[in-house]
Amino acid sequence: xADRWYPVIDYTLCIECGACTNKCKHGVYDPEKLPTPVVxxxxxxxxxxxxxxxxxxxxxxxxxxxxxxxxxxDCSCGCSC
Length: 81
Ligand code: SF4
Ligand code: SF4
Hints:
Elements: E1 6-9, H1 19-23, H2 51-55, E2 61-64
Antiparallel strand pairs: 1-2
One iron/sulfur cluster (SF4) binds near residues 14, 15, 17, 19 and 60.
């Protein structure tokens, strides 16, 4: 659980491919809203996971709490990001 790390969608860039919602296994996104990404449970996001952001073809996902890459690629949430 992360209080200060969760994805934010730039809807001006998002092409609604659904990849982020389908990728995340932690219930952060609301699957009922597919293909539109809706961050329904930000606290479920794993600290410094970038699984959905790395998958986004539009560069539409950024993270609250992003410190500029200190832990870039260091995902330990176990979802094969
Ligand atoms: S960063 Fe990881 S845990 Fe957080 S929403 Fe994206 S895939 Fe899910
Ligand atoms: S992966 Fe990117 S483009 Fe696709 S739905 Fe998510 S935010 Fe939008």
